[in-house]
C-alpha cells in the first residue's frame, strides 16, 4: 500500500511539472520581443491557430507602403505586424491595441496608467498631443526605456483641453495629467530604428 502511495505521489508531481512547463512556454510564445527574428513562415508554424490575414497598406502618415500580417484578427490577441520587405522575411514593427495575451519584456501593458509608465521608466516621461497619427506618443526622455524599441501611446479617458491637440510635446502640470486619466492604448515595438 505504501509503494502505491509513493508511485501516485511521483506521478502527481510529474504531471504538475509538465503543466507548469507547458504554461510557461505558452506565455513565452506571446512575448513580443521573441518574435523579432521570425519571418512570415516561422510565424505561421509558431502560431498555427492565428488565422493570419495578409495585405499591404500605407503607414507613417501615409508616406510609406508596407506589407502586413495580422495574427488573431478580430480577437483580444490581435497583433499587427508590418514587414520591411515584400517577402515578409524581416519585421519592421509589431503593434497591438487590445489587452490580450501579448506582453513585452518591459512590463508595459495596454491600460497601464501614466504613473505606471513613469515607474517602469524610472524617470519622468513626456507625451505628444492628441488628434493626429502619433497621438499620445510617449517620449522616454533619459529613463530606463530610452534605448528600447518599445513605443507606447497614451489616450485620455477624460475631456482633452484644446491646447493638448497636435504634433507637439505637451507641457502639462501633474494636476492636468491626473485630470486626463491617461492610459496606454497602443504599443509598438519598432525594429527598423
Automatic annotation (TrEMBL):
It comes from the Bacteria. It comes from Christiangramia oceanisediminis. This is Lipoprotein.
